[in-house]
Amino acid sequence: MTDLTTDVRVTYPEFSLDVSHTFPGQGITALFGPSGCGKSTLLRVIAGFERTASGRISFGDELWLGEQSFLPPHRRGVGYVFQDARLFPHLTVRGNLEYAHKRAADLPTRYSFDDVIDVLDLAPLLNRRAPRLSGGEKQRVAIGRTLLARPRLLLMDEPLAALDTRRKGEIMPYIRRLPNAFGVPVIYVTHALEEVTQLCDRIVALSEGRLAATGGVAETLERLDLADVQGRFEAGTVLTGRIVAQDKALHLSRVDLGGAHFEVPQIGLAAGEEVRLRVRARDVSLALARPEGMSIRNILDVRVLGIESEPTTAFAEVLLDVAGQHLRARVTRAAIADLGLRKGQTVVALVKAVSFDRQALPREKRKA
Ligand SMILES: Nc1ncnc2c1ncn2[C@@H]1O[C@H](COP(=O)(O)OP(=O)(O)OP(=O)(O)O)[C@@H](O)[C@H]1O
Questions:
Q1: Number of Cα atoms under 13 Å in the Cβ half of residue 176
Q2: Answer CATH for 4-230 from 3.40.50.720, 3.20.20.240, 3.40.50.300, 3.30.9.10
Q3: Ligand 1 atom 16: the closest Cα is on which residue?
Q4: What's the whole-model pTM score?
Q5: What are the tens digits of pLDDT across the range 94-119?
Q6: SS3 for 113?
Q7: pLDDT (tens digit per residue) in 110-144
Q8: 36 touches ligand 1 (CB under 6 Å)
């Protein structure tokens, strides 16, 4: 496991980046933040594409950038996956993959050509030419080709941004597997909260070229003021649970949060597997007692941990404990007053199953 330590600065006429952070040499780290905060710039600095960068970058005991030194990109052993797949259109998928494989023949390897085909399910595509692939298939091939160049670190710059929600849901499980299957850490640029929730192990959040927050996904998303990233409307919390039952007839999955249960549109993972659910604060309602005879599937006993009123809006955010995890409810200040809500009170939270975007949850692999 090799950590990447960065302490770097870049100055453009109207923007500056100044980031000091150690990226652990395992798992997937989200580089997250609003448009223009410097995510791609930092990725380019790490890859060695930004010659004006100053400071220090080291990968284990290898120095990539120092006062007197600059290791060129091709000697850093970094793989780069872009938003567009950039495949060779005149070659088949096999041709594209073999091109990268041959060029990396001298590099040490922990996995074979066939391992890459297997993990990314590329066998049915091998004889197709790039222009004949869907956007999601192209990205799977692009990831495979990058892996066959034997990177020691994989940088992915919004690889799903050009895909629709359904294709994103299909390709996310493949990306999730990359660090374990190929022993390569991933730094993953995105401004999509669903991708952070489903794919990443930790977050490095940037704001105007500076670190805004770093840490695990659930606690960082909860702490981070997301108002300038996706608007208050998108803010929420991430809950971790295990699938305990699948109802194939009704297309529902039951998730145990460690005591409390959630029912959500069917998730393409087996019973027993861990899953993360992002619940938006605006999708959570509160009641003083369990209602009867209603369509809402998720009715949870929760405790009020805190209430943040927003005097300049109609709303307040209520932080709740559900089986030791956090949930937020965005409700009107008028409702807080009417219900007489206060810290420490036990109430009931209501969440419609339909508020989970089924297509953004992990999906079963489709047969090619
Ligand atoms: N070569 C350059 N010269 C001058 N300014 C630049 C250059 N590259 C990027 N910038 C500016 O630096 C800022 C950060 O850009 P960057 O592409 O890193 O942001 P980002 O967070 O990746 O945004 P997005 O999510 O929109 O891709 C922007 O204001 C951009 O205009």
A1: 19
A2: 3.40.50.300
A3: 38
A4: 0.85
A5: 999 999 999 887 888 889 999 999 99
A6: helix
A7: 899 999 999 999 999 999 998 889 989 999 999 99
A8: yes
